[in-house]
Amino acid sequence: METWQALGGVGAGRTATAVTVAFVAVLITVGCSSERPTSGEVIVAAGDITSCSGTGDEATAKLVGGIDGMVLTLGDEAYPEGSAEDFGECYEPSWGRFKDRTKPVPGNHEYYTEEAEEYFDYFGKAAGDPDEGYYSYDLGTWHLVALNSNCQEVHCATTSPQVQCLKADLAANDDKRCALAYFHHPLFTSGKYRLGIPEVKPLWEDLYKAGADVVLNGHDHNYQRFAPQDPEGGQTPSKASGSSW
What we know:
Number of domains: 1
Structural class: alpha/beta
Largest sheet: 6 strands, mixed
Number of strands: 10
Strand order of the largest sheet: 6-7-8-9-1-10
């Protein structure tokens, strides 16, 4: 496991903007109400990415190739089963070229292969501890938290090790960095999986309490953006200004 760095909690009262992602490039200088100046980092985020049965992954890889910045993969990286063959023959020829700047999280299709073994083998240390699949790191003046929303595998209950680790990580952010979290399954969606995946609510609750600024998810195979809201789905006033995606 990459060590959870002592950089969490950013003042309660900030509200998270949730985004369900097919593909999005984000300049993360916006949507943050931290008093600390942001550093203009760029991330490229996508979920549900590659399959040997289509060419969409090659098209999005071409776009990513023209954008400098950290690549966040939001799960279901290699269809249909996240097998060694899926990663080697489908992911590697297109999105594999960005492997050295990719910070992944697993989706449900990775666990179609037992314990998501081939996902962890492919991404190595970048994917965190194979028994966990969650980790955190800093990017400029931002603190990013990668979570594992496969709750049947790693558990997402309030008392689970993942949620306890998340609490500690966020509580330790005494320099008030802007915070972005990403994981595969959305709590909120207006697409196929409407009304969302309730098992991830404990993750959202702690992110909300800590004042996280942005949440990115995959799973729904389309792009959605939500106004800042609480864990119950109620819209809340944003304290950030200039949000733009």
